[in-house]
Amino acid sequence: MLREKTLAVIGSGMMGGALACGLTQAGAMLPENITLFDTDQEKASQLAAKVGAGARVSDSVTNAVAGVDLILLAVKPAVVSQVLNSLTQTIQPNQLVLSIAAGIRLDTMEMHVAAGVPIVRAMPNTPCLVGEGATAVCLGTNATQDHLKIALSLFSAVGLTVEVTERLMDAVTGVSGSGPAYVYLMIEALTDGGVKAGLTRATARALAAQTVMGSAKMVLETGEHPMQLKDNVTTPGGTTIAGVAALERGGFRIAVIDAVEAAAKRAGELS
Fold it and tell me: Is Amino-acid biosynthesis among this UniProt entry's keywords (predicted)?
């Protein structure tokens, strides 16, 4: 479905780059069908080299989106309205706009495009770069089930994708949008703990990262509740229950819940 589509990526930052590279690395899109635009032309050129041979860099945002099938809006939330305003006469109803700008609501974006233009709002995360992203999408007023299929196909090429109602997008931001940062903190902490216990930093980091990846895979592939999986490795009087008790004393669980809530609240403020 996607390999025949043409895509314009507006913005060459972390997320725009992760998606563009992830799509070509997964074989979901051809580099020659991808056009990049960024106000920093050198940055866009560097991304084009990573996307693959044939990826093009446009000299203007208008030229980038003219005639393409899909438009990925990967700019900072503060400039979304400005970018869409500059493209009001260019974007047509037969094109699909996919926005990954955190906190910018569908009705806000629809105010800045021509009548009938379909918009899908998405919240992906940076693991899209390695094909293990987590993305939630919601449909705008003019987006149809066919547009949903395209969006699901695009983001599923680089990881797990779910559809939610827009009122839940702030919660998605708190869990999976910002979640990688929480996980990196945990890997860093596990690594430091391993170093304190005598491991080399390289060994501790490798073990910590693999443990997080393997544990996540267990949750997804077994379908078992995380509590049950935890109980499976906490034998009476053993080492793991001692470690779990230390985490509970430190408020680990409530700290993570508070982090999700704080990020979700901030996403709401941005909107």
Answer: yes
pLDDT digits (tens, 9 = 90+) for 108-127: 999 999 999 999 999 999 89
Sign of the CA dihedral running 240, 242, 243, 245: positive
Domains in the chain, number = 2
- The CATH number of the domain where 242 resides is what? 1.10.3730.10
* pTM, full prediction: 0.88
Do the beta carbons of residue 230 and residue 244 sit within 8 Å? yes
Query: Among candidates 146, 161, 143, 172, which has minimal Cα distance to 19?
Result: 161
- Residue numbers of the domain that contains 210: 179-270
pLDDT per residue as tens digits for the range 168-204: 999 999 999 999 999 999 999 999 999 999 999 999 9
User: Which of 171, 190, 207 is at the close of a domain?
Assistant: 171
CA dist 11 to 27, 39, 42, 138, Å?
A: 21, 8, 12, 21
